[in-house]
What we know:
The complex is a heterotrimer.
Chain A: H1 9-13, E1 24-35, E2 38-49, E3 53-57, H2 64-71, E4 81-89, E5 102-103, H3 111-117, E6 118-121, H4 132-142, H5 148-161, H6 165-168, H7 181-193, E7 199-203, H8 211-224, E8 229-233, H9 237-243, E9 246-253, E10 256-264, H10 265-270, H11 275-281
Parallel strand pairs in A: 3-8, 3-9, 6-7, 7-8
Antiparallel strand pairs in A: 1-2, 1-4, 4-5, 9-10
Helix pairs in contact in A: 5-7, 7-8
Chain B: H1 2-42, H2 47-51, E1 54-55, E2 60-61, H3 64-95, H4 98-113, H5 116-130, H6 137-161, H7 165-173, H8 178-207, H9 210-213, H10 233-243, H11 248-277
Antiparallel strand pairs in B: 1-2
Helix pairs in contact in B: 1-11, 3-6, 3-8, 4-6, 5-6, 6-8, 8-11, 10-11
Chain C: H1 6-50, H2 55-58, E1 62-63, E2 68-69, H3 72-103, H4 106-121, H5 124-142, H6 149-173, H7 177-185, H8 190-201, H9 203-219, H10 222-227, H11 245-252, H12 258-285
Antiparallel strand pairs in C: 1-2
Helix pairs in contact in C: 1-12, 3-6, 3-9, 4-6, 5-6, 6-9, 7-8, 9-12, 11-12
Amino acid sequence: MTTQLSPPAIAETQTPDSVSTPDWAFRATDLRIAYEGKTVLQDVDLNIARRRITALIGPSGCGKTTFLQSLNRLTDMIPRCTVDGSLLLSEQVFKEQGFGDLDLGSPELDVVRLRRRVGMIFQRPNPFPLSIRRNLELPLREHGVKDPELLRRRIEKSLRDVGLWDEVADRLEQTATALSGGQQQRLCLARALVLEPEILLMDEPTSALDPLAAAVVEDLIQSLRDRYTIVIVTHNLAQARRLADDVAVFWVREGTGRVIETGTVAQIFDRPQDPDTEAYVRGLRG
Amino acid sequence: MAEPRSHTQARDFWTATVLWLGAGSVLALLAWILGDLLLQGVGRLSWGFLTEPPSDAGRSGGVAPMIISTLWILAICLATAVPLGLAAALFLTELASRRTGRWVRHSLDALAAVPSIVFGLFGNALFCHVLGLGYSILSGGLTLACMVLPLVVRTTEAGLSNVAQEIRQGAAALALSRVTTLRTLVLPAAAPALLVGLVLGIGRALAETAALIFTSGYVDRFPESIHDSGRSLSIHIYDLSMNVPAGNDTAYATALVLVVLLIASQQLATWGIHRWIQPERSVR
Amino acid sequence: MTSSKPSASFRAAADRCLTVVLVGAAAIAGGLVLWIVLFIARESMPALLSIAPWRFATDASWHPQDGLFKITPMVAATLAISLVAMCLAAPLGIATAMFSSFFAPARIAGLLRRWIEILAGIPSVVYGLWGLTVLVPRIAAIQAPGLGLLAASLVLALMILPTVALTAEAALRSVDEDLLRGAAALGLDRTGTALHVALPAAKNGIFAGLVLATARALGETMAVLMVAGNVVQMPGSLFDSIRPLTANIALEMGYATADHRSVLFASGLALMLMVGLLVALSTMSSPEATDG
Ligand SMILES: Nc1ncnc2c1ncn2[C@@H]1O[C@H](COP(=O)(O)OP(=O)(O)OP(=O)(O)O)[C@@H](O)[C@H]1O
Ligand SMILES: [Mg+2]
């Protein structure tokens, strides 16, 4: 994967005993992402705050998914996708401190360490075609949890966290793909939570669900507020308004996607500065 | 108004008639071949035919040693081609860059087009002489493995690439290792395609003759080890019809056994392909 | 930036190990065809170095034990058999494909495809046996000995018919539906649609299939070996006994030594070259080639 090295200067200025603890989880500076040489996203300067919910909104094809996937380096899976500029993950996010901020552009980056702290939920629920228990057990075992009692406890806890425990406690051995769409999505959330991440990335997590199931999942996301840093892509402006603390508006200008405006939910929805933002949040454009 | 209509109707009628005749004659030919096979082969067929060794140069007795040899050759062929083919298919779907992948695929397509007699030459030179394996079941099986490899790789690859991208993304987002992803998620999902590839490989290997004459040889005794020469069913048919006067009845009976095996494996593969590999194949 | 977990280095090692295995397997599978070519070339080197190339055409006869290597009659035989077989199989195969794509009820079309797939699965040695016992006596009744160009071409035509029919059907099937609807909207009848719209649109795919079938025909061994008569002579009429290249290899490999053996490998190399050219041609003309 051709991920350009960003200058490590910023990473090194952050010392562990830095007094002014940065209150950000991700910091993108002059980020540019291209598929097969064609730039789809550029000039992205964006701070994503810790322990807050940031919504990414904007019309289709403006690079929201692309940006989200660069946050946990899922862009590695796409052949000929290049990311340059600087993208940092704050060291505050890690349990063990003293390594400095993580440079997400570095080719030597330990993606295992990254993805253990950054979970992801996709638009289409994607439970593995295994039993419900195995879906949760697999990532745990993979990351070194072997003790059966501990496994059992953590599986139960994460299922309780997503409100699925009562529904599936007596059929943990059944295949996960037999669950309803909403249940599947909650299982995927549980699967991400079971690794005890600090950050959750969500790509339109409710758009493939019926309204009732979507409401359940949305409530669930509300319940995770303050405990997790959440970055959520959504096309549902009402949902963004209900959930988000901060909002970043993506827009295609001169053929490539950009971030045209960022701010708190009140700023974006009530006092938008950019005319395109204004038209978009009013439902006039995009 | 009625005139041109009846004109086109007449033209369609005649085209249809000609094509019905053409297709019908194809069916008739096939029926003729299969009918002959059945009529001339079934007379010699009996339980003893399958369980006894041949006698009188094959005119009487059975084909038991050939069945054993065929199975051994097949076993060696599959034991080599399936792991190798699976690994190569995994490379193509999981690791290869687009360019490398294209080269490997082109190369496999070329391999699939190599005439079987050339495989025979290659196997004879490499396995029998250079590696010193002589005319043996081992040489024959390895030669066939080279031959069925493209089939196994391409079928398995089709199955592997059908494994949903969402599953792979989910696994990557959880930082599952490549080994775990493959073992617990990708391979189980691709297993049916692998089986279909296996069955197709069996079909191709069972039918092969030219590549075996100069690699596995034609000794018609029970092989004692894989280093012995062994005569496959297909070579037995060839030998009986060409070198043994009045051997045709046994040749037909052997051919019947072989064709039944082949059609069975082929139908199994076809069913499997429609069931698992391209279930949404569109029919116009 | 090493992880604190000891299992991390283990899993990295396992992943690396797997990568090595996969790359190795792919290298073997991908390199095999090249290896075969090089190997056959190596084995044919002695002959190509010690025998002047024109002698394959100018020697008095094919008597390899006496150092006479006239190979042209066998090349001619291979070409003649393939040509006649293609002339028979191409129209019949394309007609079958047209029938099942445009004229047959869906169930009959499906049935036909199944039967043709069975036809494709019958081993060549069985075709040879059938040709030898059924076709040859009937041809011999017209003109003895019956073994020869006609018998070999007929058997071969049957064997490549499935390739032609199945590839042509696939090509016709992939013709853009809109095109056919357009033709129907213009009031074309089925014959017109099939002949003047679908057939031209599918001609690349059909051609690719024909080329592939020719490659099969050139390389076929057992069936022609059993019914061609195997006399080394230039094909003069449909009833002449002839010996194609492949049959020659199969007949003589068992006892050939030295230059003789090497010439057989060289003929194998020539065969591979012809087939390789045809396959390349077929890949270039098939519709998938354009979208690289
Ligand atoms: N794998 C890929 N290869 C090439 N181009 C891609 C790829 N994935 C996305 N793109 C292009 O990148 C641009 C941004 O796509 P992206 O999926 O990030 O948009 P999005 O904002 O998530 O849209 P949506 O709201 O529809 O999900 C689009 O123009 C898209 O066509
Ligand atoms: Mg998206």
